[in-house]
Amino acid sequence: MKIGFIGLGIMGGAMAANLQKGGHPDLVVNDLRRDLAERHLAAGATWGDTPADVARDADVVFTSLPGPPEMQAVALGPNGLLNAMKPGSAYFDLTSNSPTVVRRLHTQFAERGISLLDSPVSGGSEGAKTGKLAFWVSGDEAVYKQYEPVLTKMGDRAMYVGDIGSGSIIKLVHNTAGFILQSAMAEVFALGTKAGMDPVDLWHAIRQGSSGRRRTFDRLTDQFLTNQMDPPSFALKLAHKDVTLATELARELKVPTRFSDLTLADLTEAMNRGWADRDCRIAMNVQLEHAGIEPFEADPAALKELLAQDAAQEASEKR
Fold first, then answer.
1. Which terminus of the chain, N or C, has less C-beta within 10 A?
2. How far apart are the C-alpha atoms of 47 and 36, rounded to whole Å?
3. What's the distance, CA 226 to chain centroid?
4. β partners of residue 4
5. Helix (H, G, I), strand (E, B) or coil at 306
6. Buried b (16+ CB within 10 A) or exposed e, 34-45
């Protein structure tokens, strides 16, 4: 199998090195900076002067680039992939990209008989170095299955997630959720420390609470994804009371609480609908309503099975 790899920065360079260690030393590589390829060339790779040189004889090409403009330049430029890749070959874009862009390019590549799959990556620079990466792949499922063994040389988890663009949607939701949580944590830690707590003591105590002991996204299976709000696990009226007290404390201490204020507004809107004795997660349905979406009705048994599968895989990896 002839493999091309374009983009040898922090993430791409580590993934390309993992491919070489995994049995594909003779990559053809390219980057705007040739010096980034030195370790790959020393391990057996060949340099391509342009993306077209990388792609011309390749069965599959991977790109790991900063964003949509760079990806489009590599894919569609005068010495780009589109005019060089052979029919029947595959192009996996590992960039955190725009779903609109990858869908448009998917059509252009398909017209030339080339399969484009968007395959954004999660795991960060440390995950890229250690091979602890997740790939969310969307596009032609048969092509994904053909090259899945190559993906798993770069990371430990590859998942097919649906039609083209689905991978990019998941990556954007995942990253935005993380950054929102980051800002929200900064806000509440500012409140706690200004109220007199040591930040490490605060952190250590919160880790032992109900929110700290459980993975963040696992909690969504209880009420939100299934729309099972009765009987409540924690009543809306109690959540409203707690956040009201927290925002009152913040005003006393002159701590700005943008996220807490928005949260209280959602809880108040839900309270005004007469939902005080229902589960507090029902306030999340207000946001769905604003977006024109019906409450989710996922099968609890199916969610439980997915959690069990993930737990079994994690246990297997630890052994």
1. C
2. 11
3. 22
4. 28, 61
5. helix
6. eebbeebeeeeb
- Taking a C-beta distance cutoff of 8 angstroms, is the pair 96, 69 a contact? no
69-103 tens-digit pLDDT: 999 999 999 999 999 999 999 999 999 999 999 99
Neighbour count for residue 111 (Cβ, 10 Å): 9
* Strand-strand pairing, 134-138 and 121-122: antiparallel
Q: Measured at the alpha carbon of residue 210, what is the angle toward residues 230 and 232, in degrees to the nearest 5?
A: 10
Cα radius of gyration rounded to whole Å, the chain: 24
Dihedral of CA 143/149/151/156: which sign?
A: positive
What residues form DSSP beta bridges with 279?
235
Query: Hey, is 307 helix, strand or coil?
Result: helix
Long-range contacts of 8-12 (CB under 8 A, 24+ apart): 8/33, 8/36, 8/37, 8/40, 8/64, 9/36, 9/64, 9/66, 10/125, 10/128, 11/64, 11/94, 11/121, 11/125, 11/128, 12/62, 12/63, 12/64, 12/65, 12/94
Residue 18: beta bridge partners? Answer: none
Q: Is the pLDDT of residue 317 over 80?
A: no
The active-site residue, picked from 153, 171, 241, 254, is: 171
Per DSSP, the chain holds a count of helices (H) and strands (E) of: 13, 9
What's the pLDDT tens digit per position in 3-15? 999 999 999 999 9
**Domains of the chain and CATH, by start:** 3-165 (3.40.50.720), 214-318 (1.10.1040.10)
- CB-based burial, 65-88: b 16+ in 10 Å, e otherwise: beebebbbebbbeebbbbebbeee
Residues contacting residue 311 through CB under 8 Å, at least 6 positions apart: none
Catalytic (active site) residue 171: yes
